[in-house]
Structure formats: structure tokens, C-alpha cells
Amino acid sequence: AGVNAQGARGLRFKPVAPNTADQVTIPEGHEQNVVIRWGDPIVKGAPGFNPDNQTAAAQAGQFGYNNDFLSLLPLGGDYERQQLLVANHEYTDEQLMFKAYDPANPTREQVEIAWAAHGLSVVAVQEDHRSGKLTAISRHRLNRRLTATSEFRLTGPAAGTDLVKTSVDAAGTKVLGTLNNCAGGTTPWGTTLHGEENFNQYFGNAGQVTDPTQAARLKRYGVTAGATERKWERFDKRFDVAQEPNESHRHGWVVELDPYDVNSVPRKRTALGRFKHEAAQPRLTEDGRPVVYMGDDERFDYFYKFVSSKQMKKGDSRAAKEHNLTLLDEGTLYVAKLTGDTPAAEIDGTGKRPTDGEFDGSGVWIKLLTSSPSGNVSHVEGMTAEEVSVFTRLAGDKVGATKMDRPEDVEPSPRTGRVYIALTNNTDRGKPGKEGATEANPRNLNKHGQILELAENFDDPAGDGFAWRLFLVAGDPNDPATYFAGFPKDKVSPISCPDNVAFDPHGNLWISTDGNQLGSHDGLFGVATAGERRGELKQFLTVPRGAETCGPIIQDKRVLVAVQHPGEIDGASVEKPQSVWPDGPGKIVRPSVVSVWRKDGKNIGV
Ligand code: FEO
Ligand code: CA
Ligand code: CA
Ligand code: CA
Predict the structure, then answer these.
(1) Euclidean distance between the first and final Cα of the chain, in Å?
(2) pLDDT-based confidence at 79, cuts 50/70/90?
(3) Using CA atoms, how far apart are residues 310 and 298, in angstroms rounded to an integer?
(4) 278 lines ligand 1 (CB under 6 A)
(5) What is the dihedral of CA 530, 535, 536, 540, to 10 degrees?
(6) Which pTM does this prediction carry?
(7) Pairing mode of beta strands 134-136, 30-37
(8) For the complex shown, is ipTM > 0.90?
(9) Which of 436, 411, 430, 432 is nearest to 421 (CA)?
(10) How close is the Cα of 374 to the center of ligand 3, in Å?
(11) In terms of Cα–Cα distance, which of 205, 202, 215, 199 is closest to 241?
């Protein structure tokens, strides 16, 4: 109520009201289609989806489970009206995938299906002539699946070191699989970046490690002490830390994929550090060097950037491509330290606005590691370069980086260069023994999260200092602690737990949520970041029961979202589903990608 279809250019739609409908609810005058579902065959030879007779071999050629990050890349020339969709498959929900699933005793086939349902998908999509509809093209020559058992290569300072060698990979360079790919990014040189996030959950028996240094490292990364939830360690010893102590060091990286080359081996870029990588979003310096912003999604963990020492080469030549595939192996990794400008006594943990009117201040980027083929340099006392690379969290601890409220996705504005960081929530802040509110993280027991706006000094992304302020303090607008960049709060949509962020062609920020604490479903929102309507947040869609909203992409003609883990409610199973999306009653619930467009054929939000 109070919000109309006027709005900033790009955001002129009637907002969707908060709701708990088991569907994707979109604004009036819009239409939608399901672009691709879990299990749809994409690779040549893959069979159609049959949930009652699923096999690992079938799954390895089908779209994976729990789609999160999405990227759309152009397919030019003869392929007009086609784009290449790249998707992350973060994790599996076995109870919602298998009938009569026994979590204490998974079968080998179930485990191998789960391995094949993790990873990445590349699938060409066909645009509709008249609308924003997209249709997956099965068996396209660029379609590809990468799973928990595909080959990946380690590059950068940790590659080939003792910390990443295993009994089957004495060279320490060849890793099988990518796990828990959450959000990601798209590079200006035509590759995609994928954050390996909660990799710790797949590795068990860390409690059996007796060496105190190693035990402390495993603990800092939350590697499972006993049996893991999925019991993979029973089926492959590399998931058993007691038997293969370094395998977990080979996960928790940023993966770079060249989706245009079906034969390319994706790289794990160790110069960018190892932590629970939510996302990795690059921008270029004025002289063409990529800078990648990255969050570590854990309560009280850090925010990072990597500044390449090499300039990107333009064009599609083979030489340019080969050069650009080395950009993320050479450069410097930094961690952020933020200082507020309001007296600490005023930050009382309630989110009450400070007397200077803003949660804001300055910050410094602290150098951790410089990577180069001529030698890697640690900037952290008492740690070698490879230790900083593999145990980056410990390096951040040593240099006193700022403990944030779960840094999720990040996106630099292509127009202003300002960087927007989603801090999703931190219900532990201010609890006994835990750090209390700070100006950048101003609420104790923070349920709803905030979005921080970071402006590099002199707009130089390679610099070592920045200014920051909170752009959005999420929650019910009637809650006095909330803040929408100063926009009148009776004219905005409620929002809780921001997770993924993206920009539209007009320079508006779009935010998807995960874990809404306001009693309604998660969804997607758009907000102006500049002009008179800065802070006018409007909800564009909501997702079905139990789902989070991921991977938003806003193009002129369409809004694309990944509906992740629909029906994921405690106690739900295939037999007792808590959602019937997308195919209705009696059909298995399937994580899927959805496209939304305007019925009148006009561009989104204009
Ligand atoms: Fe996978 Fe941080 O969300
Ligand atoms: Ca202030
Ligand atoms: Ca996320
Ligand atoms: Ca999340």
C-alpha cells in the first residue's frame, strides 16, 4: 500500500504484497515460465527425468539440484536470440529427492546421484520472438554438466603445495569436484566465477585429528567433527578427514569456468583465498585490471577483495583468452577493516539511528597475500604465503579484520562504482561471549540483515581505503530500526535477509532474500540507488513455500530467478511434500529457473 506503479525508471511495476502462496507470485500485467527444472536432460544422451527411477548416470547429464547463482552470456553471430545460461547447484535435499530416504543409511546409488546433482550446469536457452520467455535447448553443443566428481585444476599460490596433496594427487593440482556453489559472478572476459561456500559439511571425522595446529584450522572452518549429514565419507575416503587430511583444503575456493569451451577444465583460483565463498564479483580498474569483491558467509566473518596485477586483454582472440585466464592467478588479496564515525557508546545494539544521522565511516583494505609466478609473498606475520591462501580466515583473524553479519553476495554498480554488500543476518551478535553491535553491524540478535554501500577512495577499486554507509537496514518498515536510505518508510516493501544482489540496465539494485523472518515468503525486490527515489524498495515477486530466491538477472525484457529448495520445511519428504511447485499436486517438487516478462511486450519496469 502507498507504493504505486510510478517509481524510478526500471521499477515501474505494482509491487507484490507479502504472502505465503505456494507459487511464484509476480506483479499484475506480467507473465512467467519455468525455463528449466531439476532433472531436465541437457547433455546429449541424457534421459528424461524419472524421479522413481533416477540414476547417477542420468543425473550427470541432467540439470542439477538447488539452482543458486545464474549467469546469462551472449551467443552471438548465428546464435541470435540464444543465450548461454550457467547455473550453480549448491546442495542436495535428499529427503525431497528420494522416496523412503533413510538419512542414517543412504545407498551408494543415492550418494552418487547427489554427487551428480551438485556442481554447475551450462545450458543454451532460446529467446521467444515476442516475449521474455526463455526455453532450454537440450543437447546444444555447449551444454555441459560439472559435478562433485568432475576434474578441476588448482592454480595460484596453493597449487602444488604440501597443503593440498592427497594420496591420489601427489602433485596437488588435480581436484575432483566442486561443492556447495552458492553465488558467483560474470567476468568481462567471458568466464563465470563460482563461490564454493559451505564445503565444510561434506568432510567428516575432523574430531579424530590430534595435531593441535591442524585441529584448530579444521575447527575455524567448521569441518564436521563426526559423521557428516550425507555420510559420503562411507563411500569415498576423500570425504573422511581422518583418512585424507588435505582433501578439504581443495575446496572452499573461487572456481573460474569458461562456458564457451566444453573441453576446458575449470580452475580453482587459490590467489583469491579459501573461505566460505559466497560470491565473487569483478569490476575493472581504469587501466583494465580486474578487482574481485568477495564475502565469507559466516557469522562474524570477513569481506575481501583481490586486485589483479595484470590488465585484461580485449577481444576474442585465442591469445587474449589465454592471457585473461591468468588474471586471477596474479595479484594481491586484501581483507576489509571498517571503522565507524559515531561514538561507540551511541551504538546500543537496537539499531537506533546515531545522532549524526548515518551508520557510516571509513575503512582500510589490509594486505594479506601477493601472488606471482616469480614468488608469492605473505603479508601476515607468522604465516607463509600458502598458509594465507589455504587458511585465509586465520590470516584475517591475525590482522584484526572486521567481523561482519554474514557477508553474502556483492555487486559493484556499473554506473557509480559503489559496491553493495548483502549482510544477511547474524542472530548471534551480542550474545554472551560474542561480539556486540558495531556501527557497520548495528543490531544485536540481528534477524533481518542490512546492505552496506562501499565507495572506494577516489573511485579507485585498486586502492587501500574506502568510505562506507548502510544503504538499507532490513525488516518491517514499521520497525524504527529499519532504514531505506532515507526514503519515506510508508512507501516501501518489507524485506528480510538480503542474500543475492544484481543491477538492472537502469542502475537499480535488485535484491533476493533467503530466510525471511517476517512471516511471509522470500522474494525479489528492486530499489533505486540514486536520485530522488533512492531507497524506494519495491517487491517484484515471491517464491513458493520453503524456497529462497536466488540468481536474479534483470535484462530489458525479462527477470530471471532461481527458485532454490522449494518445499524445504522441517519434516518434509517426497511422501509428505510441503510444496507442490512447479508442477502441481502429485508431482515431485523441483528447484527450477523462472523467467518473468511484461504481457504488453514493453521492457521491465519502464
Ligand atoms: Fe549459500 Fe550464503 O548462501
Ligand atoms: Ca555515523
Ligand atoms: Ca546465498
Ligand atoms: Ca543464503
Answers:
(1) 20
(2) low
(3) 31
(4) yes
(5) 100
(6) 0.97
(7) unpaired
(8) yes
(9) 411
(10) 36
(11) 205
